[in-house]
Amino acid sequence: MATVYADTIVSHWDNMVPGMQVSSNDFYTQVERSLGDHHLEGLKLERVNLRQGGVLSAKREYLQVRRSDNVFHVCAAPFGNGFFVSWWLGRVERGFFAMLARIPVLGFLLKVLFKPLTYYKIDTTLMLQSITHGAVLSTLDAMTSAKGVRAPSEFERKPIMRDFFEKLK
Asked: Would you identify the CATH topology of the domain 6-152?
């Protein structure tokens, strides 16, 4: 399972749909189908259980969408009298390099020399975000239409970017 830390989050999106009740499993299955239609090389889909808090806290199932160093955690769950959907896009940092990269000055030099920010890295991250977000929205649209509830507005459909270029370094 890929670990993503708060300081590696690139973007986030969430939406609450009042009056809609569907199963998380059905939502994840439809998102997986939609993503499969794109035939992305290196894409790994997996259901993971992430803790809601500390070590002894309960776990919640997420759909993990991973390609290269990018990982999405998609959450879909009933919440009160509605249905909540969110995703978090982060960078996976692991291994000895990740540990060294957190050291001031040395980390900066290592990233500049061995993992520089490139147009390719930016483009592939943005395309993965676009495809995954599109799969989540198309699933949400199909389910809101089937249930006869309001779909997210244009404003509600936009992801929130968090220091995008800084997080990709």
From this structure: TATA-Binding Protein (3.30.310)
Query: What is the b/e burial string over 48-78, where b = at least 16 CB atoms within 10 angstroms of the residue's CB?
Result: eeeeeeeeeeeeeebbbbbbebbbbbbbbee
Q: pLDDT tens-digit profile of 128-140? A: 999 999 999 999 9
pLDDT above 70 as % of the chain: 91
**Separation CA 148–CA 20 (nearest Å):** 9
Q: How far is 88 from 72, CA to CA, in rounded Å?
A: 5
End-to-end CA distance of the chain: 22
| 92 confidence band (pLDDT: 50, 70, 90) | confident
CA-to-CA distance for 85 and 162, rounded, in angstroms?
Answer: 19
Query: For 44-80, how does the pLDDT look when each residue is reduced to its tens digit (9 = 90+)?
Result: 999 999 888 888 888 999 999 999 989 999 999 999 9
Amino acid letter, residue 113: L
User: Domain spans of the chain?
Assistant: 6-152
Cα–Cα distance measured from residue 66 to residue 158, given in angstroms and rounded to the nearest whole number: 21
